[in-house]
Amino acid sequence: MSSAIGRFGLVIHPLHVADFARKFPVTRLLPGGLVERVFRAIPPFEAAHITGVVSATGARAEGWFIGLPWTPQVLLSAPPELVTRRLVQAGRIAERLGARILGLTAFTKIAGDRGLSVARALEIGVTTGNSLTAATAIDGALLGASRMGIDARQAHVAVIGATGSIGAACSRILAPRVGALTLVARHRDRLERLAARLAAPGAAPAAVTTDVAAAVRRAEIVITVSSAVDVLIEPEDLRPGTVVCDVARPRNVSRLVYERRRDVLVIDGGVIDVPGPVDFGLDFGFPPGSCEACMAETILLALEHRYEDYTLGAEVELAKVEEIHALMRKHGFRLSGLRRFERRISDAEVEAIRRAAGRPHAPGRVPHGDAPVPGSP
User: What phi-psi label fits residue 203: left (phi over 0), alpha (psi between -120 and 50 degrees) or beta?
Assistant: First the structure.
């Protein structure tokens, strides 16, 4: 591998109006609606320089956060062509700074055609990061299940947002390896097409529903990757002992679950520890040295000097899920243990949840970050 430093750009945006204050403290004093309207007119800008990424192989990378100051509501309500234009502007800033690959994060990877038009307009590679997000969503769910004494091979699993690119990839990987599967999304026709695609000898029967609460009440393991901007799972929806891996940003699980349900394990999905003395240069809501899986995919491709379009469009290739997961291990990136709202969950806390749920003691543990992602069926 070349000794040259890998260079990447990451497009980020505020998930909530309150997030503007991380970069612009004065916005704390202004009405939220005014802040959204003012920043909607501001073009993308360089938000921070990212340094100190050092792979387990010795490879190094640096990058830049490119800020698009639009909340999810603004991104989803804006004309797709305008969103694409803004993202291309962000990509050209990254190009001028020296980035060779651009990662689309959060709702920027959902808007429009999921990066395809942006990739056509830029000279550098583009990825949504959805391959590693799918891999680590399963990592987190299996790790949580192991810690709670749940045998995933016998468990009923619900995937919320199953027809999205990440949800469909998770469903395809899980179908032959769990006891039962419920697919949940807004459009029943798309759910039924996905269920038909999953049908195969030895695969779990896949039920479909648009009723999140009903699906969650039946499940022992829940993976939620919905692009909804509202809370989908409330305290009363969960059965005792359930493991929920919440990969969505903003979160799909109500904070009330953490306050009222001491008998369920809810974890943040897709939080990755990046090797090296990493300085992201910006408080973007994650613990020091960690980032979202979609960001980590971009960084890994830069470390590999794979400056190419990688995960784009509505379909996630399972071969790429496996490949990027292998690169994660190669370079020493790790799932950041069990966390919720960016706080690490201690072993004692997990044990207290297990006891409150009345679950038998787990016979063994999977060390954090090493839960195996099944290969493609």
Answer: beta
Longest dimension (CA), the chain: 59
Range of the structural domain that residue 216 is part of:
133-270+337-357
The residue with tokens 């590693």 is 132
Do the domain assignments include residue 372?
no
Residue pair 182/157 in contact (Cβ under 8 Å)? The answer is yes
Q: Is residue 181 part of a domain?
A: yes
For residues 347 and 314, state if they share a domain: no
Domain total of the chain: 2
The answer to whether position 373 is within a domain reads no
Peptide bond preceding 250 in cis form (omega within 30 of 0): yes
Tell me the CA distances in angstroms from 218 to 21, 207, 214, 215, 328, one per residue in order: 40, 11, 7, 6, 33
**297-335 tens-digit pLDDT:** 999 999 999 999 999 999 999 999 999 999 999 999 999
- Nearest Cα neighbor of 112 from 136, 145, 78, 146 is 78
pLDDT in tens, 178-208: 999 999 999 999 999 999 999 988 888 899 9
Please give the Cα distance from 67 to 80 (Å, whole number). Answer: 18
The model's pTM is 0.90
Burial label, 34 (beta-carbon count in 10 A; 0-12, 13-18, 19+): exposed
Q: How many CB atoms lie within 10 A of CB 221?
A: 25
Residues 41 and 11 in one domain: yes
